[in-house]
Amino acid sequence: MQEWLTRERAAIAGEVTPMEAGDPIRIVYVERPTGTAIAGRLEVDNYQGGADLKVAATQFAAGQVVQPADAGAATSLLANCALGGNPDVQAPDVAFDGTRVAFAGRASAADPLGVYVVNIDGSGCTRVTPAAPDSNGLKVHNFDPAWSPDGEYLVFSSTRGKAGAVKSRKRFLPQADLWRIKINGLAASGTAEQMTFLSNSEVGAQFMREGRVTMTTEKASDGFYQLAGRRINWDLTDYHPLLAQRKESPYGVIDERGDVKPSVDYSSATDIREGNNGDFVLILSDTKPDGSPALPGAAGALAIFNRSIGPFEAGRIDIGFVPAMRILDAGNATGRAGSAAGYRGPFELPDGTIMAAYASNVTQGNFEIVAVSPRGGNSRNLFNNPNGRVRVDAVLAYKYPARKLYENRRQLVFGGFADPGDASRAVLHMPDAPMVFTLLVANLRRGRPLEEFGAARFLAVYSEGMCGATCTPGGNGIFESRSLLGKAPLASDGSVKVSLPAGQGVVFELQDGSGNAIIKMSEEHQLGPGERVSMGVSRNLHNAVCGGCHGSITGRELDIAITPDALTGASASASASASPLSLGN
């Protein structure tokens, strides 16, 4: 295997960073003053002056191990960025060519955050999102930039849009969606395009190697709040769960622990980034009842999640169950309320260790960049001569070949495409609505509540109202204003096909024959402009197509078996060839 990789790297030597002992490498990071907690990922209004964007030179040792860098010898990248003498700087990301750095910054508390691009030698700094005036009394921030793997776009979070800036419905902070803009060299080319359209915030965009976009999505409804991982295709189709969808799951085969079972067992998953082997590194933490972080400093437990294994269930140890998630340094940085220590900003290094910022006391914000072993959680410092400052959000500036962006395919489960003919509408086909709802609202490998959901006769669809500048929470602690777009009858096999408004948040509900709710999603979904998508499979194919990751309908692992019908019948239903029923005209 190593010889194969060596030959592949030799064939593209000019497109990859040499990583033999003695080869140079650079680390880009944010440096901040000591003694203050750092704002959470959603708290973009919190100005944190005195920061700097720096690059430090170091080299590889044997085994592609990154050697410690000298913090005292690091250089600033802000000299040409016109950010004044007391800037706030956040979230750098390096393009595939290893020469361009994107970051968010502002000169003062009176300014909104903007996305900048600078050469890694500090030359040619450009603001690619022009400053906009306050809207509805809220600042229009642009932040959390991420380079597309072909280096031609930046995806970022922005509080623009929604007919003026609005607030999130639980924490009442500036609400952010994902946007993208084409980049030519260091400058923007064209106008920004909106990618997500929900009523709560989406932050922390990153790219999977295959070209999909990942993010942290803020989800809120009556009695439910979660910061979860989601993903979306580049053509804005198949907005999809990724990991950590809920702290607890109310559905599954009842066991000795009762109805409600821990799933990921944390209410916040942030800083999500795909690693070199396809696993995801992330930060997990608790939140307070109002949704704010239990730990200051945007910190928590450092975790590795193997999504290919399927849903995680905390505390499950029975024979045959393979945990999808591991928490590193679990005896020290727990992510729980009251924990002193914490990690933030994980980034996997070429030798398999995880670079992250670690603080022994997150309240004091004494972060330093370390490399953490995925086996055992032991760590080593990646900076010498700390110079009385703290360092966070480090990324490695290495080169890799440009990669394509991912668009949906008709033959996949959740397959489809984007039709440019009518961007204002989308068509959703569910081959088996009760079956797919068991995946939308429950993420344990303990059986599917098909007997309960199978009584459904209608699919109802609601739109979620936005929280304007003066909105206030209801009795459940959130602002909620839903409007029924309409409902569609299910066919005899449970299938349904509807046309819905594209580019807005929607909430799905199953109803019985009398119009009573059986189950309603606890979060919003979205359909992209012109999207045509088939969501899920029929129940007779679930064990063959979805059971390997999501578990069988019964919860028995031996019921999972592959069948050739999965290749040809995944999207077959009584509604597949029917004209869609139009809702929400």
Summarize this structure as a short list of keywords or feature phrases.
single chain; 585 residues; mainly beta; five-stranded mixed sheet; 6 helices; 39 strands; 6% helix
What does this structure look like?
The chain has 585 residues and is mainly beta. Helices cover 6% and strands 36% of the residues. The protein is built from six helices and 39 strands. It starts with a helix and ends with a strand. The mean pLDDT is 93.
Short account of what is shown:
With 585 residues, the chain is mainly beta. Helices cover 6% and strands 36% of the residues.
- Describe the largest sheet: 5 strands, antiparallel
Our estimate of the beta-strand percent is 35-45%
Give me the count of strands. 39
* Radius of gyration of CA atoms, rounded to a whole number: 24 Å
Total of DSSP H or I helical runs spanning 4+ residues: 6
- Give the helix/strand class: mainly beta
Mean pLDDT: 93
Shape: globular
Low-confidence stretches: none
Termini gap: 56 Å
As a percent range, the share of helical residues equals under 10%
Topology readout:
Elements: H1 2-11, E1 24-32, E2 52-61, E3 65-66, E4 69-70, E5 75-76, E6 88-94, E7 100-106, E8 114-119, E9 126-127, E10 142-147, E11 153-158, E12 177-184, E13 187-194, E14 202-207, E15 213-221, E16 224-232, E17 240-243, E18 248-249, E19 261-262, E20 268-274, E21 280-285, E22 301-305, E23 325-328, E24 342-348, E25 354-359, E26 367-372, E27 379-381, E28 383-384, E29 390-396, E30 416-418, E31 425-430, H2 433-441, H3 450-453, E32 458-464, E33 482-489, E34 496-501, E35 505-511, E36 517-520, E37 525-526, E38 531-534, H4 539-545, H5 547-550, H6 565-568, E39 581-582
Parallel strand pairs: 4-28, 31-38, 34-39
Antiparallel strand pairs: 1-2, 1-29, 2-3, 2-5, 6-7, 7-8, 8-9, 10-11, 11-12, 12-13, 14-15, 15-16, 16-17, 18-19, 20-21, 21-22, 22-23, 24-25, 25-26, 26-27, 30-38, 31-34, 32-33, 32-35, 35-36, 35-37
